[in-house]
Every structure is written in C-alpha cells, then in structure tokens.
C-alpha cells in the first residue's frame, strides 16, 4: 500500500493543509493499492502565491536559461522513464504497448519546447511600434487521468518556455504517476515557485485556480462540460484560456480506400488508450457500396484484439480507469441497443475469462444513424459506431454534423482526393492515411472541442501577450 501525503510547493515536498484522503486502485484488479492526501483551498492559494513570488525573476530569464531548464527536465524524465511507464500501467491500466510507444513523449515535449525557443521571435517592429511578446503571468494547468504524465509535461513545457510560473492540478486518480513525475521535476532543479504540483479535487483546488485573481492563464484538458465551467469561472478576471476538450472524431473510409488496411488503422485509432482518448476515431464512416467488406474487416480485426493484463506486451486493450467509468461505458452499450443499433461485436459485461477488473469488451455498432446518442456523445471507452454514407459529400456532411471538432481521419487510395476531403472537415487536426499525429503541429479543437492550441510555436504563443511600445 502506497501512501502519498506530500504536495510540491515552492520547490519543496510539503504536507498539505488539506486532510481529505482518496483511495487509489489498480483498475486491472479493482484492488486498493494506496491512498493520497488531497490538497485544499489553502494549499491552492499558497501555490499561487509561490508562483506569484517567482514571476518577476522568472519572467526576466533569457531564452538560454529557460532552454537549460527544459533540457534538465527532459533528462530527469528520461532517467525515470521505466518508473513513469510502470506507474501508468499499474494505476491507470495503460497497455505496455501504449506506454512503450508513447511515454517518451513526456521527455520529448521539453526538448521540443527548447528547440522552438531557438527561432521564436519575441520582438518585432510594426509601424512605429516595437512589439514584444511578454509572459502572460502565473499560469494554472488542470489535467485529466487518461494520459496524465504527458498532458502535465506539455503544459509545463509551454509555461517554462514562455517564462510563466505554473501551478498544476493533476487528477486525483493519477496520484502515483504524479508522485514519480514530481520527483523528476524536483531532480531538474527548477527555481522555487516556478513549478508547483497539487493533487486535489476539481471542485476544490480547481475552483481556486480558475477564479484566483493572480492566475492570468489556465490550460485545461478534459471534458467539454468542465471546460465550459472553467470559462465561466475565468470570465470575471478575463483569464487567458487554452481548453482541449472532448471529441467524437470521424474516421472517413472513402470508397477507393484499401479496406483491410484502412479498417485496421481505424480500429487502432478508435481503441487506442483503451478507448479513453479525446481524439479517438469513434465514428467510422463507411461507403454503402462497400459496407459488407468494412463490417467483415471490423469483425475479424476486433476478434484478433487481446483484452486483459495491461502489463502483458500482447494486450491491445486494458481496463478502464475506474468503476465509475466502467459503468458509464456499460450504460452507453445498453443505450446503443435501445436506440436500435445492431451489435456487430462486443456488448455489455466483461470479456470472457476476466472475472475482475474494469474491462470492457471492444464493441462496435452498425446500422447507426448520426442522430443516435451513441453517435453524438463522447463515450470514452472502447465503443465505436459504423455509419454508412452514399457519396463523398454525404460523408463530409456527416463528419461535420457534430458539436465537436477535435480531430478527424481520412483514408483513401488517392492522396489528392483525401487532402481535398480533409480541407472540408471542421476539426483542429485532420490525419490522412494515418492515425498518428505530428508532435510539431498545433493541437486543439474547434466548436465544443476547445479554444486555443498546444505544441510548438502556437503552444508557446498561448503563454505570451503582445506589448506595443510606440514612439513619437
């Protein structure tokens, strides 16, 4: 049993003022594996005060000094890569395949931010004015449980590159991962107050961070509903916002696509991270002329997926993060049947042979219309829907008929045709004949999928404000 009873404030591990304790579970076994003492409002205000004290000196650091900090953070994360992976497998249920491929991103984002600083222009002349990009001030970051370490690293990297001290509130479901990550940050010897980490509840710590007058910028990754609440909280003090929210991403299989390879890619994109990915391609749009080929390929592809122990390299899909999330996804599977969709594969309950753990059968519905709730609402589990279309324009119309617009996928045997379709999709990112994004590209959504962008120069700019000095 682990006991996590410290937060990271002003460059030190300290006992929180908060006394509430939350259990930590292994989602593959449902067993309690530890507990975490949660920060409260007093801790949140203390963290903001520490960041505010650090702001004047940190805002004046040179790009070379900030690059050196970012390189130290990258080295510290790299040194603990195996510990970070193991924590994510045990506490979250991420598969070994996923963490082996994805966890190096936690270190890479710091190097990428340092590289951006090499060429980023902080000053320019416009007319008679000199315009400089200045740190926006104290930043706050609120991150979810589904890819906690990388999300935290991304937000810290942007803030450090810009010269903004930051207060981070990771999910309380990710406390073991947060502990290892915070040890990495401490090892990087960042000046006191520049990075502060508080594990606490959103309605307690998050409420303080999104309303505190000394917080100038909030970066959030999570649900659209919570993002809307953060916007309301931030309005009174006009905080700058970057909100990466929910999605219901379409995976468009054009009628000239190689169906076996396109379906294999679509299943990878739909089921990645155990289905708990905001950008998952959960709506597969298939041409009616080839619907039988598509459904046959899906049935055989899903049958080959192994669900089980996330530490096993042969496992493709691990458990969901919590019992609450498991029950939510089960309710959507039952809803799909109630709405009249056809269950192609999967269904309610655990996969055969798994008596414990929050495992969900990889589930695919056919006969789905875009009006059904299972086609419109973010389920956040391994549940996909297949929607048929008659022609290219109808596919584009269905893809765009959603309140979301985070990511989309287009598969075609004709690259130029795929690009033409991609340019008509309402999404922050459109991937053509791949399900793997470009880490150097800006990431974020349109419509109810969010505001602003992360990564690269766009992500750095989100932590800066232009100041014009005009002479006579």
From TrEMBL:
The keyword Oxidoreductase applies. Coiled coil: none annotated. PROSITE patterns: ALDEHYDE_DEHYDR_GLU (PS00687). Keywords: Oxidoreductase. SUPFAM superfamilies: ALDH-like. Pfam families: Aldedh. The active site is at residue 244. It comes from the Bacteria. GO terms for molecular function: oxidoreductase activity, acting on the aldehyde or oxo group of donors, NAD or NADP as acceptor. Residues 20-469 form the Aldehyde dehydrogenase domain. Belongs to the aldehyde dehydrogenase family. This is Aldehyde dehydrogenase.
């Amino acid at each position: 049993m682990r006991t996590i009873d410290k937060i990271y404030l002003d460059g030190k591990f300290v006992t929180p003022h908060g006394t509430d304790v939350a259990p930590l579970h292994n989602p593959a076994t449902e067993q309690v594996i530890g507990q975490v003492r949660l920060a409260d409002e007093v801790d949140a205000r203390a963290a903001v005060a520490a960041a505010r004290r650090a702001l004047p000196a940190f805002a004046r650091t040179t790009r070379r000094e900030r690059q050196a900090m970012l390189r130290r953070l990258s080295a510290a994360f790299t040194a603990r890569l195996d510990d970070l992976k193991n924590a994510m497998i045990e506490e979250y249920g991420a598969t070994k395949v996923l963490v082996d491929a994805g966890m190096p991103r936690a270190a890479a984002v710091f190097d990428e931010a340092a590289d951006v600083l090499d060429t980023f222009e902080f000053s320019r002349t416009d007319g008679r004015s000199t315009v400089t990009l200045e740190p926006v001030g104290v930043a706050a970051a609120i991150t979810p449980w589904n890819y906690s370490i990388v999300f935290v690293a991304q937000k810290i990297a942007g803030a450090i590159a810009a010269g903004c001290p930051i207060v981070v509130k990771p999910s309380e479901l990710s406390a073991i991962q947060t502990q290892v990550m915070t040890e990495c940050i401490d090892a990087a010897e960042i000046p006191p107050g520049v990075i502060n980490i508080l594990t606490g509840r959103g309605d307690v710590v998050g409420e303080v961070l999104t309303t505190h007058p000394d917080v100038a910028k909030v970066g959030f990754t999570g649900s659209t509903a919570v993002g809307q609440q953060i916007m309301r909280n931030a309005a009174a003090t006009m905080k700058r916002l970057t909100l990466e929210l929910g999605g219901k991403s379409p995976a468009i299989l054009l009628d000239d696509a190689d169906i076996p390879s396109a379906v294999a890619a679509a299943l990878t994109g739909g089921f990645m991270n155990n289905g708990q990915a905001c950008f998952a391609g959960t709506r597969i749009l298939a041409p009616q002329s080839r619907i039988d080929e598509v459904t046959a390929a899906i049935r055989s592809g899903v049958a080959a997926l192994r669900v089980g122990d996330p530490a096993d390299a042969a496992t493709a899909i691990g458990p969901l993060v919590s019992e609450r999330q498991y029950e939510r996804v089960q309710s959507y599977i039952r809803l799909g049947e109630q709405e009249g969709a056809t269950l192609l594969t999967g269904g309610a309950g655990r996969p055969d042979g798994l008596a414990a753990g929050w495992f969900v059968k990889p589930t695919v519905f056919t006969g789905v219309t875009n009006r059904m709730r299972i086609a419109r609402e973010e389920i956040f589990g391994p549940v996909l829907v297949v929607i048929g279309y008659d022609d290219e324009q109808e596919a584009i119309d269905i893809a765009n008929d959603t309140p979301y617009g985070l990511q989309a996928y287009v598969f075609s045997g004709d690259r130029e045709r795929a690009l033409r379709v991609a340019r008509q999709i309402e999404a922050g990112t459109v991937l053509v004949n791949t399900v793997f994004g470009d880490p150097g590209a800006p990431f974020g959504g349109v419509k109810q999928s969010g505001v602003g962008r992360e990564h690269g120069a766009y992500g750095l700019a989100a932590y800066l404000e232009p100041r014009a000095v005009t002479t006579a």
